[in-house]
Automatic annotation (TrEMBL):
Species the sequence originates in: Pichia sorbitophila (strain ATCC MYA-4447 / BCRC 22081 / CBS 7064 / NBRC 10061 / NRRL Y-12695)
GO CC list: COPII vesicle coat; endoplasmic reticulum exit site; endoplasmic reticulum membrane; Golgi membrane
Superkingdom of this protein's organism: Eukaryota
Protein name per the record: Protein transport protein SEC23
Every Sec23/Sec24 helical domain range: 617-732
Lineage, top ranks: Eukaryota, Fungi, Dikarya, Ascomycota, Saccharomycotina
GO terms for biological process, alphabetical: COPII-coated vesicle cargo loading; intracellular protein transport
Keywords: Cytoplasm, Cytoplasmic vesicle, Endoplasmic reticulum, ER-Golgi transport, Golgi apparatus, Membrane, Metal-binding, Protein transport, Transport, Zinc
Length: 904
């Protein structure tokens, strides 16, 4: 096995063992080396990578299970790990992050030395991942019958055009919720809130009894009491408390909650379940001819937030919003009441033509902060004060926390972009569909309504990232809320800047301040969720400053404290990894040569270059680059101009190629560049680890789910981006570059093709499947001259009269793509030759491909990325027209950028 293939196996092994994948698996030691990497060093971290499926060989990753408290460094807060130095004689250990020495906590106290039974103090145990089951303490005690709560927030509006139908959209929604309720276990809590022009809190045990809350009444009472008339006025929250008959006191135990006493939350059992279902079925829709009626979605979110914020200590739950249109009045308005108000576009939002967006974003962001345990006063202070950030405030420990799931099923825009912070900051999910009849909606609802005891989920989680001297945490990008760093407590606030980078780079938005922290609040986390973590390298100015005494390894520790509902206990999972630096490579060469070599000479430079190239994970590099750019594009007024984002993307790809395309000269056994291409530069050589870089880049650039947002609404963009920012590596790869399959007569894959039109045209009597993650296209190819094999499809839609015709592809979707077991159920689009919806397939296929595709078993050198530059010339164009580009033109364009950077 070649060293390159061995390194690729290490990429997969790291993901299998730790749930971690880096873009560069060797860290730069000098600033010059760091600058060549183009985008920051980072990784994708999946905390519960082991909770879904076993590894291919049938074994689970090795995780050490410990009952007891972890040993924590008193200086930096990291936990004892396999790389720590241990002095058992003196009951001390040395922290490998900050090099400080610590006494073992509770020395002589048997209850806190339970760890010793598992020999955790020994550095030879070999476990990078350790999970602690924490004993109960007074400060973190939990009720052993702690209940999980589900709050259903239901939009009652229905257009009158649907009123005469045998099955209305609203009735379909109610029946879907009823089906979901049937799956919930006894013991959980359920609440129902509905809204139209007012908000109604249902009390199912008192049949047909509700508490009505209207915006007019709240504002009137607040103004008459001299308390102001702004929705960001904390005094108005007190008005809502009184409307609901609640005090602002959080109960110690869930059984003592005011909500149970007032029947606003119902504990499920066989009898109460039927009562809740009866209440649901008695809900009547509010019929309207107006497509933008007085819809108080924002007020419903506010009332829900007030209700849950004073529930009980350690409250955990999920609020699920169902809406069929936009919010049209404050708070949270995204559209005016006028039926003639224009649809929101990316350009309009970028030019601040939609006057409601900035205030709506502030409002829903504030509600997300409240869902993360912050008070209304703190949340309002942060969004109304430019100098204050949420990371300036320590997150309360036992305050209620919950997530928001958003289901918008409408042909109209529903304001999902403005409401996105509700889901993204609380680790909730967003789902868009055209109607509540959609099968995909029903499946996603069932996935949202889960039994918390069936799988391993993390609730009320906090992820903290710690580093050794060679690194600083730069940014965290994921679903979740950035909260105050672990160093911002009173006793260690002076250390914040020592461990967390405050450097602003070209990937930062000029319109949104970044929060510098190493701590992420995760109200709900499942095994598929991934966090992108970026680092700033503490590098040397030049190789002359590097010495054999310089740090050769860097250490990173991920800590996540979470509530495990299956055991009703707190747990901490820590993962500690060791990363080699280029200094270590140089030092090794010096040592192996008996000290006769200079630390940096031609031979050592070649070896260092080889190791650096071999450590490059091209797909992870692209995933992290795209996450950085999507985060940059998302601002406080809308998405920024994507043309500039695409320009940064193209330049980044070209700069990376330019900086690593130099031919290496030296001893043959040191060269890692295997393949030569006949371009204009006869000495142009490139490493095989880059062999798919431009191919993926081309697909990313034209991807309508990521960058190519022409004719896409801000709501659709927010939906796609929210899923990509939390997707695991496999799903991220699929979003970036779809996969095209040709099915045989038995339903097996005959071949997987490149995304090129020429592989589809001219083939008849077969099915093609294009898997794009968000949707899957089933395409039946038939001979238009004979019409044999044609499906009975509507010309522009995908209704079908004979399901048997689709048995083969549908079985493939279920058995091979496992699309129904994914976290997001994809929309299935059925099309065929000359069918209107075939555009979904051909829009993702390029018209030509300049390099030969070979089987994976062939020589990987033939897939070298620069082989695709063969016979190309430098494009005279400095830019590409997005909708005219082909693969060939894109390669020309990247090659021209490479030469441009070379000449600068």
């Amino acid at each position: 096995m070649s060293s390159s293939l061995a390194m690729k196996d290490r990429f997969q092994e790291s993901e299998r063992k730790f749930g971690i994948r880096f873009n560069w698996n060797v860290l730069a030691s000098t600033r010059l080396e760091e600058s060549r990497l183009v985008c920051p060093t980072g990784c994708l971290y999946r905390p519960f990578f082991d909770a879904d499926l076993p590894a291919p060989n049938g074994t689970k990753p090795e995780i050490m299970k410990v009952t007891g408290f972890p040993e924590k460094c008193s200086h930096c807060g990291t936990l004892l790990n396999r790389y720590s130095g241990v002095d058992k004689l003196n009951a001390m250990w040395r922290c490998n992050m900050c090099n400080s020495k610590n006494f073992f906590a509770g020395h002589g106290n048997e209850s806190r030395r339970a760890n010793e039974d598992s020999d955790i103090q020994g550095s030879h145990n070999g476990f990078e991942v350790i999970e602690y089951h924490l004993p109960d303490e007074i400060t973190d005690s939990l009720d052993q019958d702690l209940a999980f709560a589900y709050i259903f927030i239901i939009d009652r509006y229905e257009n009158i055009d649907n009123a005469d139908k045998s099955k209305s959209s609203f009735r379909s929604l109610v029946q879907s919720i009823e089906s979901a309720l049937q799956r919930l276990p006894d013991g959980c809590l359920v609440g129902i809130i509905s809204f139209d022009e007012a908000v109604y809190l249902h009390q199912p045990l008192d049949h047909n009894t509700t508490i009505e809350v209207s915006a007019t009444d709240i504002m009137k009472e607040g103004t008459s009491a001299g308390k102001g008339s702004q929705w960001f006025d904390f005094n108005l929250i007190g008005v809502i408390y009184r409307k609901l008959g609640l005090t602002g006191v959080v109960a110690d135990k869930w059984q003592n909650s005011q909500h149970l006493i007032k029947n606003l939350l119902i504990k499920l059992d066989s009898a109460s379940r039927m009562t809740v279902i009866r209440e649901l079925n008695d809900l009547k829709p509010k019929l309207t001819r107006n497509f933008k009626p007085v819809r108080v979605t924002g007020l419903a979110i506010l009332v829900t937030s007030v209700l849950l914020s004073v529930s009980y200590k350690n409250f955990i739950g999920k609020s699920i919003l169902f809406t069929s249109g936009p919010c049209t009045v404050d708070p949270g308005r995204v559209h005016s009441l006028s039926a003639k108000s224009p649809m929101r576009s990316h350009n309009a939002m970028n030019d601040i033509e939609n006057v409601y967006t900035p205030e709506a974003l502030k409002f829903y962001t504030a509600m997300a902060y409240v869902a993360n345990g912050y008070s209304f006063k703190d949340a309002f202070d942060v969004i109304t004060t430019s100098s204050k950030k949420i990371t300036d405030i320590l997150q309360p420990k036992e305050r209620p926390r919950w997530s928001f799931d958003l289901f918008a099923c409408s042909l109209d825009q529903s304001g999902i972009f403005e409401m996105k912070p509700l889901a993204q900051n609380t680790t909730g999910q967003i789902f868009l569909s055209e109607t509540f009849f959609d099968v995909q909606f029903k499946e996603m609802l069932l996935k949202s309504i889960f039994n918390v005891l069936e799988k391993k989920y993390a609730f009320r989680g906090n992820l903290s990232v710690f580093t050794s001297d060679h690194l600083k945490v730069s940014r965290l990008i994921s679903s979740g809320c950035n909260v105050a760093s672990t160093f911002q407590s009173e006793k260690s606030s002076d250390k914040h800047s020592d461990f967390i980078s405050d450097i602003v780079d070209r990937f930062d938005s000029t319109m949104k301040k970044r929060e510098f922290t190493n701590n992420l609040s995760l109200n709900f986390l499942d095994s598929a969720d991934t966090v992108a973590v970026f680092f700033h390298l503490n590098t040397y100015g030049s190789t002359s400053q590097v010495s054999t005494s310089s740090p050769k390894d860097a250490y990173i520790q991920f800590q996540i404290k979470y509530l495990d509902m299956s055991t009703r206990s707190w747990k901490i999972r820590q993962t500690t990894i060791q990363m080699a630096t280029t200094m270590k490579i140089l030092s090794f060469l010096r040592g192996s040569a008996g000290g006769d070599l200079k630390l940096v000479n031609e031979t050592s430079h070649l070896m260092k270059e080889r190791r650096l190239l071999e450590s490059f994970d091209q797909k992870t590099w692209l995933i992290l680059l795209v996450r950085l750019l999507l985060e940059k594009a998302d601002t406080n007024i809308g998405y920024t101009d994507f043309k500039s984002i695409i320009g940064i993307f193209d330049n980044s790809v070209a700069q990376l190629i330019q900086r690593f395309k130099k031919p290496l000269k030296g001893p043959s056994h040191f060269h890692s560049i295997h393949f030569k291409t006949s371009t204009e530069d006869d000495n142009l050589l490139f490493h095989e680890n880059f062999n798919e870089l431009i191919t993926y880049a081309f697909q990313i650039r034209r991807n309508p789910d990521l960058f190519s947002i022409f004719n896409t609404s801000p709501d659709e963009t927010a939906f796609h981006h929210s899923w990509f920012l939390r997707a695991d590596p496999n799903s991220s790869n699929l979003i970036m570059r779809p996969r095209l399959y040709l099915l045989g007569q038995t339903g097996n894959v005959e071949q997987e093709f490149p995304l090129e039109t020429k592989y589809v045209i001219g083939k008849y009597g077969c099915f093609f499947i294009l898997d794009c993650f968000f949707h899957i296209i089933i395409y039946k190819a038939f001979d238009p001259a004979t019409g044999i094999g044609k499906l009975s499809l509507h010309h522009s839609r995908n209704e079908r009269s004979n399901d048997e015709d689709l048995d083969i592809p549908m079985k493939f979707l279920s058995n091979h793509l496992s699309c129904y077991n994914r976290s997001l159920t994809p929309k299935v689009i059925i099309s065929q030759t000359n069918h209107a919806q075939s555009r979904y397939l051909f829009s993702r296929l390029a018209s030509e491909d300049p390099f030969e595709q070979v089987p994976q078993t062939g020589n990987s050198g033939h897939n070298s990325i620069l082989k695709s530059l063969r016979n190309l010339f430098v494009s005279n164009s400095s830019d590409l027209t997005e909708h005219e580009q082909s693969v060939d033109r894109y390669y020309q364009y990247i090659y021209s950028l490479v030469q441009k950077f070379e000449s600068e």
